[in-house]
Amino acid sequence: MYRKIIMFIAVMFCSCMNAIAQKDSLLDALDNGALPVSEYVDATFKSSRLVNFQTVETTGKRTLDFRISHRFALLNGGINTLYGLDGPANLRLGLEYSYDGRLQAGVGRTVYQKMYDGFLKYKLLRQTTDNGMPVTITLLTSMFVTADKDPTASFTGYDHYQYFTSRMSYNYQILIARKFSDHLSLQISPTMLHYNLVENITDQNDMYSVVGMARYKFSKRMALTGEYAYRISKYSQTMSQYHNSAALALEIETGGHVFQVVLTNSYGILENQTIAYTQNDWMKGQVMLGFNIGRFFTL
Amino acid sequence: MKKLSIITAIGVGLTFLLNSCYYDKFQELHPELNTACDSATATWSGDVNKIVNAYCIGCHGAAGSGGVSLNRYDNVKAAAAGDKLINALTGNGVPSMPPNTHLDDCKIGSIKHWIKNGMPNN
Fold first, then answer.
1. Is residue A118 within 8 Å of residue A96, measured between CB atoms?
2. Confidence of residue A117 (pLDDT cuts 50, 70, 90)
3. Looking at chain B, which terminus has fewer C-beta neighbours within 10 angstroms, N or C?
4. How would you class A118 by CB atoms within 10 Å of its CB: exposed for 0-12, middle for 13-18, buried for 19 or more?
5. Which of A54-58, A190-194, A198-202, A290-294 shows the lowest per-residue confidence on average (mean pLDDT)?
């Protein structure tokens, strides 16, 4: 009996020592850099929106993101309009949720054009620390439905929204981003917009663009961000009346919140409003203040 | 089971998205509207008042935003006489109005002709 117990203890001891030796050799290998550690890069951006456009980020597992976006009137209204704060202002309220941290769904309502929106977003590939995967790629599809009335119907007698489908438009984006360091992240997003109804015979229902984004984190909780949407396709004969959307923002992260103070030439907040139909021109000083707030709730 | 539900939901969503895609053009739906713009015959009741009611009155009613009220003929005439109205519609030195859209050339032309004709209450 004693012999069996001694044998058992001896076997266990040898096994433990062997395991410890293996662990030590693995740790040594790691210290020497012999075995690279592959982990997913996190926080490429701090929020699912940089300013108006979506980033590769999805909310965390079982996390609800309540978003408030506000755009005031043009700054060049001067002190008489308190630099645009008198309005008219635009507002979007949104709720966005992810169960597994990769597939995210969201809905929202924007005052401008009384626009309802919904989207699905899936984080397809994730950047790794060993550069096995150098970028994060997220797919995005959004749908927009306006509840607005046609302002011209009262005197033309023809309603642009005679058919419900004419109220709908869509956005499809491939979001490709890389976090180059703890400070710098860049993203590029090939984009296709589809409008079910356009005005003129020569107008295109599909329009193509590319969105560029940058984020530079300069302190533990603050970052400067910028985004620019370049319109590629000649989608409308009135295209020259509109401008490429561009925005700058100061991003402040606090516990459970991301707060962004925004300077943009786009009064609209959604992709179908900003990319194709931004009316204001940075070069003429036609910019407006705004802010975004994201509040996260873990459910 | 959970994955199957998610895939089904995405499939249903995509089917809905693709089935609701249309390639409509307003001018094709209503070819009878494709007539040349005739802003030279613009009147207060037939054109200018309707444009103001459709695009301006939402903010510039009786208690007008920015101190500009366009709710009556007299008020519109006063704004138009000082070039304030045309400058706002064309974004000439002031923020372009309406803030969310551009009036097309025909509508702005109608208002210009009405001003040129002495802004009659016709």
1. no
2. very high
3. N
4. middle
5. A198-202
Nearest-angstrom CA–CA distance, B122 and B44: 5
Torsion over CA: B3, B8, B9, B10 (sign): positive
- pLDDT on residue A279: 86
For residue B102, pLDDT beyond 80: no
Q: Angle at the Cα of A105 (from A50 to A53), degrees rounded to 5?
A: 20
A289 neighbors A275 (Cβ within 8 angstroms): no
Sole residue written with tokens 């755009």: A71
* CA A139/CA A125 separation, integer angstroms: 10
As for the ipTM of the complex, it is 0.77
Residues A188, A192, A193, A194, Cα dihedral to 10°:
-170
Read off the tokens for A110: 């924007």
Confidence of residue A44 (pLDDT cuts 50, 70, 90): very high
The pairing of beta strand A184-195 with beta strand A168-179: antiparallel
CB contact under 8 A, B100 and A198: no
Residues in chain B with CB shorter than 8 Å from the CB of A141 are 14, 17
Burial A63-93 (b: 16+ CB within 10 A, else e): bbbebebbbbbbbbbeeebebbeebbbbebe
Nearest CA in chain A to B14: A141
